[in-house]
Amino acid sequence: MNPLAALWLSIxxxxxxxxxxxxxxGHQQIAGGPGSYLALVRSGWVWAWGVCFVFATGLWxxxxxxxxxxxxxxxxxxxxxxxxxxxxxxxxxRIPASRWAAIGVITLGVALIFSx
Amino acid sequence: xxxxxxxxxxxxxxxxxxxxxxxxxxxxxxxGAIVLGSFGHLLIKMGVTAAARQTLNxxxxxxxxxxxxxxxxxxxxxxxxxxxxxxxxxVSQRSISFLYPLTALTYVVVALGGRFIFGEVISRQRxxxxxxxxxxVAMLQxxxxxxxx
Lengths: 116, 149
Hints:
The complex is a heterodimer of chains A (about 120) and B (about 150). Chain A is mainly alpha-helical. Chain A has six helices and no strands. In chain A, helix 1 packs antiparallel against helix 3 and helix 4 packs antiparallel against helix 6. The longest helix of chain A has 23 residues, at about 5-25. Chain A is globular and about 45 Å long. Residues about 1-20 of chain B have low confidence and may be disordered. Chain B is globular. The chains are: A mainly alpha (about 120), B mainly alpha (about 150). At the A-B interface, helix 1, helix 3, helix 5 and helix 6 of A face helix 2, helix 3, helix 4, helix 5 and helix 7 of B.
């Protein structure tokens, strides 16, 4: 697969994974014991997270083995924005303006760290 | 009435003990997830880079299998897995639009780890990037205070 296509697919699946995970565990209070983690196995959303996460990670590994880190990592930070948008649309999370600004600043910082 | 002062005191006490009781546990879980995720990522990268040199012309699936079977990559995945369990806990406690950008601290941990463990040189621009990420994370914290999330 084309490394750039693998990278974009990895970013999209990774963002979906986080939103699915929140959907799966959002209303459950995990007490910290192993039992509360085992209960998560029954949630379809948690399974969706697992599948997306595994594919996102595999695609990410393929992408970084074939392209420069200074190119791949700054693109990865677009995931913060994608997760924020998805969390508004699918989870009805309310994001204050200060958080959008924070996400922008973090994305800029990551771009600065990796561009050379 | 004198009951006013009696009500106030237990509330104050509650606020203090909250620092160590489950309501603050998510912060440690998120931090642990980020640190373990960083070291896991470093090990995975080591294993994958080694494997990539050996399997330039194989199919996608056999390459993927080969990557995962590298000892460094396997150890990295294990550490990453423990970090993931901590992450799940943190996600159950706070909104994802707040928690996910925190993972940018991974890059700060990896850069500082490279600097202080392996003696790598960090360029001026990279230091600037690290500072900007830290400012962004501080802004995130303020946004959470604003919105109890």
